[in-house]
Design goal:
The chain is α+β, with helices and mostly antiparallel strands. The protein is built from 17 helices and 17 strands. Helices cover 49% and strands 23% of the residues. A hairpin with a 4-residue loop joins strand 6 and strand 7. Helix 1 runs parallel beside helix 2.
């Protein structure tokens, strides 16, 4: 093919211009043939086809990018792509933009794309330490050329927010060209996990305090799981997993058949159970458990047994001790009852069988006393013997009185205190009148009480009689009777202005049988002993306040059942 230089150069120039246009990425790079050379025509046609193909590829790539952007916008995760030349953001989806624009230090109109990753981090409020953390993360991902996960936490002013994030390198020609940052907020999951952790911690603490453990026996894979507290109860060796064999071997021999039976019924029939049993730990210690289980069934088959085991060793031992104490108490009561019966028999003998010899003795003394030939010395001896016999007779009468009062029925009833005082005044009215005594009952705040009526009358009569007997000379007796409640019981108080009692000397033997503190008046020393016994039988007690030559006050606490509640 022959062409002149003038014809060839313009053709080549057109081709060169088209190549330069394509190299710059333009879409309208089609050229025209300016010469008549077939080769140039073919090159030009080829270049035009290449231009059209490149343009179509550009359009396809744009469609793919739009599809990718649409997909990125539809996901909840924050996604951005960073090129590694300047570390600037080239892609950022809506979720990422919303996340960073919610930060308190970033204005809503701040552009995101084009910022370097560190610039964006600083703008959204990363601290210096967090920026350093991010830098180290980026360097590690680039150097290892691997995806690296991290947990991020931020305080956006309304509490901590948590994100599960990753950096994924995109490698081209053995070089990391892009980094893809993907982040998903897990704040609620973290909070739920934290709450669950607290709940589990509290459950473990509650199990430790109550000494209760739980278990789960899966029949699908024959696995057995125990809580930490149950492992402690069974003293499971550290590092050893629980097994059914270990559990069964821990059961005391006398209860192994029972446990096999209830567990067998749970498996075969789906029966729930609650069974107490004894176990023996690897160290040889006996423990008592209350084991409760529930069968979990599907399609008529038991697939698991779940339940709890409560150690009740202390309760069982306490019950055993109570039972032992009860048996010992019953034996003591039996012995005491026997002793009381013998004492009553002895007292009966002393108070009745001695009466006849004493009467014969008094009769003999009277016969001797009538003999004329007796001298003065003999008469004096007979008089002293009669006096001793009289004292013995009083002692016997006192024993009779004590026996009669203790043989009374102890049933309590509602008593009217003013009426009982009136009855006492009738009984010893002559003595009250003879001593010109003043009996004041104006301070009866409580008029009803629950007590044995006959015994309550005896208490009042003995205390009033003592006040009259142990009066001061040349001073008319003044006796004040009051009643009130204290510590959920009725208190009956009798105070006088008599000779009083030296409590430092006589306080310890105040209520002893046949104890007397004054000898200038007659007495047998049984009254205070008797009324103190009456009060003690009702669960009460007596307080005494006294000062010599100033008077005595008896505070009779009638016991916990003494308050008479109205129906």
């Amino acid at each position: 093919m022959n062409q002149s230089t003038e014809q060839l150069v313009p053709g080549l120039q057109s081709i060169l211009d088209q190549l330069i246009c394509i190299a710059h990425g333009h879409h309208d790079c089609k050229g025209e043939v300016t010469g008549e050379d077939d080769t140039l025509d073919a090159i030009t046609v080829g270049l035009n086809m290449l231009t059209e193909e490149l343009a179509q590829r550009e359009l396809d790539l744009e469609d793919q990018n739009r599809t990718l952007e649409t997909m990125l916008e539809s996901v909840a995760e924050s996604i951005t792509m960073i090129e590694t030349e300047q570390f600037s953001l080239v892609v950022a989806n809506k979720a990422f933009i919303e996340r960073v624009t919610s930060a308190p230090n970033l204005e809503n109109d701040t552009p995101i794309r084009g910022l370097t990753l560190i610039e964006a981090a600083k703008k959204v409020g990363y601290s210096e330490s967090q920026v350093e953390f991010f830098n180290a993360w980026i360097k590690e991902s680039i150097s290892r050329k691997k995806r690296i996960h991290r947990l991020e936490e931020f305080d956006y002013g309304q509490g901590m927010r948590y994100f599960s994030s990753s950096l994924t390198p995109i490698v081209e020609a053995d070089r990391v060209k892009y980094l893809v940052y993907v982040s998903r907020e897990i704040t609620e999951e973290v909070k739920s996990s934290f709450k669950l952790s607290i709940s589990e911690s509290r459950l473990k603490q509650a199990q430790r305090i109550s000494n209760v453990g739980h278990f789960n026996f899966s029949l699908l894979d024959q696995s057995l799981s125990w809580s930490d507290q149950l492992k402690r109860i069974f003293e499971l060796p550290e590092g050893q997993d629980p097994s059914y064999e270990f559990f069964l071997n821990s059961i005391a021999p006398e209860h192994q058949e029972l446990m096999n039976s209830v567990i067998g019924n749970a498996i075969q029939k789906g029966e729930n159970f609650e069974v107490p049993h004894r176990m023996v730990t690897p160290s040889g210690k006996s423990k008592y458990l209350l084991c409760s289980g529930e069968a979990i069934r599907e399609n008529g088959q038991t697939i698991a047994i779940m339940g709890v085991a409560h150690e009740v060793t202390k309760d069982v031992i306490a019950k055993q001790r109570i039972q032992q104490q009860k048996v010992a108490l019953e034996e003591s009561n039996r012995k005491l009852s026997t002793a009381n019966n013998r004492l009553e028999e002895l007292a009966y003998i002393a108070s009745h069988d001695l009466k006849a010899p004493l009467l014969n003795f008094n009769a003999l003394l009277e016969m001797l006393e009538g003999q004329e030939e007796l001298g003065e010395f003999s008469k004096t001896l007979i008089a002293k013997m009669k006096q001793s016999a009289g004292g013995m007779n009083q002692t016997i009468q006192g024993l009779n009185t004590v026996l009669e009062n203790f043989q009374q029925q102890e049933e309590a009833e509602v008593c009217d205190i003013p009426s009982i005082i009136d009855q006492v005044q009738l009984s010893i009215g002559s003595l009250i009148e003879r001593e010109s005594a003043q009996l004041n009952v104006s301070a009866l705040a409580i008029e009803k009480t629950r007590f044995n009526k006959q015994r309550l009358e005896s208490i009042v009569q003995n205390l009033v009689s003592n006040s009259l007997k142990y009066r001061q000379e040349d001073l008319a007796p003044a006796i004040n009777i009051s009643s009130y409640t204290k510590d959920d019981e009725v208190v009956l108080e009798v105070a006088d202005n008599g000779v009083g009692i030296d409590l430092e000397i006589n306080g310890d033997r105040m209520f002893g049988l046949f104890k007397r503190f004054h000898t200038h008046v007659e007495g047998r020393g049984i009254g205070l002993h008797m009324i103190n016994s009456f009060v003690a039988d009702a669960g009460g007690h007596i307080e005494v306040e006294s000062e010599v030559n100033k008077g005595t006050t008896f505070k009779v606490h009638l016991g916990p059942e003494s308050i008479a509640y109205e129906a």
